[in-house]
């Protein structure tokens, strides 16, 4: 017998609906339907060749945006199950949250934002929303995927005030309202934000050591890593090498998952939200780490920023990636005919360039740059 759904969980039967109403699916909930549409989208498939930290050609086993999204979905569903949240909504948001990411990771986002300064800027979270609202073209009756309010709300993780005002004008009381008047997202969306953080901290430790850019000995400076490395050795004294690293990461992940479950249960018991909208009216997120785990997780994030993301080798790759995208933007904005017709014929030329470039995989962007400039930067 299924447990009763907690009052604070999102309920697909009570969704705020889609922008264009559609008949209900006979065998799937509204959130299951959203997840399925995301998985079958072109933008989702492209994530397999989009950078997380290391470019796709730098190694077969490094994470990509696709594998990262799958790891976020796995962590999110595990936590959602323990808290009684809607797993399908968590999975849909997790799988879609990076659809708007550019090639070459955050380097690409920064370049496009720079190129688009005079034309509204570029935000990858907003771009993810553009993908599911407009840019995917699969259905005869509408552009985009026509997802539920709750899924779209979770995808729009961050938003500048200017863009929030534009969204609010087109969709009063909709997904951008909280950026203007305060409030939170659903617990399922809050969970995806935290699962995203847990996932990238863990897999960037793995990829950083695998790449040789950081050493395990360096990582032992970080309390969260050191504690679980010692616990792994206490349980398995002869463990060494990659198995020791994997066991350390596994224990770190478990500790963070259990911490989130315990801290969130305590917060929900104190707040006692009557329903999902009561969660949205909260002045702070209810889905959270304990104060101690927040401190330790932040310390790991700072370590990775200083020792991996700012490593000279990563920065060298970043500089070349930035040049590729600057050259592409300059070429396309100067001669839109170099883009496919559905982008070249748009009146909003610069936004069309940004949409086209943001949708590229790393390797396609590199090939296009070689074709258009004759230069080989990678």
UniProtKB/TrEMBL annotation:
SUPFAM superfamilies: HD-domain/PDEase-like (SSF109604). GO terms for molecular function: dGTPase activity. InterPro entries: dGTPase, dGTPase-like, dNTPase_2, HD/PDEase_dom, HD_domain, PHydrolase_assoc_dom. SMART domains: HDc. Keywords: Hydrolase. The keyword Phosphoprotein does not apply. Residues 65-201 form the HD domain. The keyword Amino-acid biosynthesis does not apply. Residues 1-12 have a biased composition (Low complexity). Residues 1-32 are annotated as: Disordered. Coiled coil: none annotated. Belongs to the dGTPase family. Type 2 subfamily. HAMAP family: dGTPase_type2. This is Deoxyguanosinetriphosphate triphosphohydrolase-like protein. It comes from Roseateles asaccharophilus.
